[in-house]
Amino acid sequence: MNDNHLKERENILSEANKARWDLGIDLHDTVIESIYEDASRIARKTVKQKGEKAAYALDLRIDKIVTSRWLGFPIMFLLLALVFWLTVTGANYPSGLLASFLIDYMHPILKGAAASIHMPWWLDGVLIDGAYLAMAWVIAVMLPPMAIFFPLFTLLEDLGYLPRVAFNMDSLFRKAGAHGKQALTMSMGFGCNAAGVIAARVIDSPRERLIAIITNNFSLCNGRWPTQILIASIFIGGLVPAQLASVVSAGAVVGIAVLGIFFSLVVSWGLSKSVLRGEASAFSLELPPYRPPRIWQTLYTSLIDRTIIVLWRAVIFAVPAGIVIWLVANVHIGELSLAEYFIQWSNPFAFVFGLNGVILLAYIIAIPANEIVIPTILMLTVLITGASGVGAGTGVIFELNSVGDTANILHAGGWTLLTGLNLMLFSLLHNPCSTTIYTIFKETRSVKWTVVSTFLPIVLGFMVCFFTTQIWYLFFV
Amino acid sequence: MSNSNNCDNCPVHNKENLIKLGLNMEQVDYVITMAGNPNTGKSTVFNNLTGLHQHTGNWPGKTVSRAEGGFIYNEKRYKVVDLPGTYSLLSTSTDEEVARNFILFGQPDVTVIVVDATRLERNLNLALQILEITDRAVLCLNLMDEAKRNNIEIDERALSKELGIPVIPASARRKEGMKELLAAIEEVAAGKYVCKPHKIKSRSIKLNNAISSLASKLAEQFPNLPNLNWVALRLLEGDNSIIEAVQSGELGSINAGDSTVQL
Amino acid sequence: MITLLTVGIQSGILFFFGVVVVLIIFWIFWPKKGLIALFSKIKMNNQRVQLEDALKYLFDCEYNKNLCNMNSIAGNLNISDDSASQLIERLLVLGLVTMDDNTISLTDTGRSYSLRVIRVHRIWERYLADETSVAQADWHNEADRIEHFVTQEDTEKLAAQMGNPVFDPHGDPIPSIDGELPEPKGKLLSNLKKGVTGRIIHIEDEPRSIYEQLVVEGLYPGMQVYVTDVDKGKTTFIANGDECTLTPLFASQITVELLSGTVPLAPKYELLSSLAIGEKAEIAGISPNCRGQQRRRLMDLGVVAGSLVSAEMKSASGDPIGYRVMGATIGIRKTQADLIFVHKKNDTNE
């Protein structure tokens, strides 16, 4: 009985298969067309267009301006520049406030509390100097700019302006084998690469989405701007008279960011022509009607959806990293700490690339967040030069308020203009932070593409630093 | 049902009727699902019903995974499943498969189809596909405010007659029309409104013959199946989940009028 | 001074060394011509490949009711007569073929083996066409490469994902899992008489040079053709309003299904990309060369035969253009707009 049923069911399937040969190759199209035909008949019976489409006419008028040959790009640059300006200036004050509260105020209190309960020095170090301090740093540097940048960006998105940006920029990205919407994921990457990678969801073509994800790291993220600005003002600004210093160093940082965009496009092109050549590609770009954004809801959802989630991930990764940072600086084998062993061992290798062991170690252990790279570098430099009187104690990450003092420490560590330049390049071209790597894995569900996105920039970074250094030696020594 | 602008219709004024449950979805009486094109305000309707804050945006493709929430209306507990926004249910993309299989195998008590009133024709493409699968649905004609601004007039009664399901005009962003939507959902869920869903009429004779021949054979094997023609068409399109369901006989467990859903 | 000089030399050496390393990396990873690609190519050329290719060819002969001997096998597989006779020897030992006089034909086992290989080949061709960006002219070769080393299960999984296709992108039926295949349909274009209307159902993809030229001509399965003249073996026909003349060699690559009765000649359509801003048109269809996700997406957005479209705005850089279809504005690139057929509407009232 059961067998009979099974056979009967198999027969049905076999009949269906034969009918499919008979119905021809374009069956699917005709099925869709028949549905649209019914839809169109029903729409004709029930929908009446009375007079002019007022709202659409307005939309079209706006579109003619924001996509016009002459005004399209200037409007776009102005708006994006405004967003970045608001982010940078707006974040300064709350960032400082958070830093002084979490680091200058809370840290000593916690230390005091630990001492009063006679916590062993190593536990106190691991928990408070390691985990807590790294977490505090990430929050202080990361939260304010993201809390400003993401809502602003989301407002532009809800308004309907962003699809027009993609529309205008598509031509450039198409030539690089990418999708116009990559302009948006790139801009988002200037805030945070992890958020940029998530934003790549709006690209529904598999190949272009992968390209956007892999190249997002070339957008200089918010955690790397402070590094660039600091190093540029010490080493590049120092080259010119004081009154020009700030302009020149700002120019250098913008130059690095533009170099990032250049790399992003070139690598996109390379990927689309090589490893991703065979991946499916489909272009579609809807230009939805403009809608007045609902400010409060936007603030709420962009804070919850983007800022908090990204921050949370960063904190989760920062805590263990803080512990590791503290441990490598404070665990001694014989005379030297682990950090010193590594630095001495890797120095010859690093010099070939115009970097040094401190930078390499800092980038390895500060992988969770670019924000803690500079504090880690300073701590390690102090550790190996044996300078005293700066920072919160041996093996504790710190930052100085004065650029001059920071410069002194770095010069004492043997840094030159070349080291500074290479650090700026390396900060642009190195592996994404662990939050981003994890996000890439979550978004692509592929180990292969996660590995590619992780190692491609760092290989590029070593190559660029290597050639910069060697050419430098050839011409300037 | 009148479509008035004053806020007497807002759910906030009907607290005794609607209780938003957020993520609390225990012991539900009815499961409803929400389907619709991207960018039709589907998530906004979902948020209005459940009190949750799914991100909504003026940009297609926001809701990526399936979202769920719950509410109580007239003392009945409802679970709402928000499906990913899709343009169609007929192709092989993952999103569409999720939506299609949930409507067929999940057997929701009501499927709320959210459409954009300013682009009704294109949105009807999806609505008609859904009506091929299920015969318990409500059409939520969203973005009516925008349609008005564009001087688009929609004859809701004629539309309801054509589609064979309740049609509720709404402006979810302003929380308008939610009360009527809830009432319609309840009527369909409780079986007080019997839908007579529209079936596609413009198919070629050759295709129709193939469908009816397969459907009659399917009827022998799965006598209780409510949407034989659709299953037959899916077989002709090579839909693997349907082929497997036929092979294993699982299709037989889908019965017309069966409203107990286990998820 | 001396130390400075040594630094210079040192970095010169290092620089050179760096360039070499970069070049080596590129050489290893370069797609198609690099070391890795070369290695996998060499690995491919083994006995099993030859055996399966021979079976495929034998089945092709049988399906098209041609006879087949050792010479034609050697010619088709591009191997020497010696290797061909060794190959046939192996096929005979394995019980896959029988030999009668000079004619070689498949046994039942051989037939089902070759149907399996063909199924795998055609499913992969379909996959390459619909789900990847591999160029049209490369589908066949790529599938030829893949078919020998993928497992049956992987292929079936792929087929299931794609909605169990029953035609390959050239219009050939894909054998079912049980090895069923429909009888060949239609007539060769070269055999059609003057005044006949038909629809292209298949374009043979081997030899590749001919196939590529037919693709360049813009011919594809599903296209309506109307034969206007047959002269000295040359066939002249109208496809999409354009006259096209093919020699018998080319015309015999195309299979046509005859359309019965008087079929109105499909009017010539224009490309969507030819619309100027503000112009309106009715969509006539999407070219079959637009496939897979791209095609689905366009249809989802309302680009289907019969719907109205108008060009609304140019992007600041000129390429994509915003078109209005079914109440929505969508950006479409020129390359896609070239694949959408329309009939222009001169009057402005709808």
TrEMBL record, chain C:
Q: Which residues form the signal peptide?
A: none
Keyword NADP attributed: no
* GO molecular function list: DNA-binding transcription factor activity; protein dimerization activity; transition metal ion binding
| Pfam family for this entry, one | Fe_dep_repr_C
Give the source's domain of life in one word: Bacteria
Keyword Repressor appears in the UniProt entry:
no
Stated name of the protein? Ferrous iron transporter FeoA-like domain-containing protein
Query: Which UniProt keyword terms apply here?
Result: Iron, Membrane, Transmembrane, Transmembrane helix
List each copy of the Ferrous iron transporter FeoA-like domain by range: 187-258, 270-344
Can you tell me where the transmembrane regions are? 12-30
Enumerate the InterPro entries for this protein. DtxR_MntR_Metal-Reg, Fe-transptr_FeoA-like, Fe_dep_repressor, Fe_dep_repressor_sf, FeoA_core_dom, Iron_dep_repressor, Transcriptional_repressor_C, WH-like_DNA-bd_sf
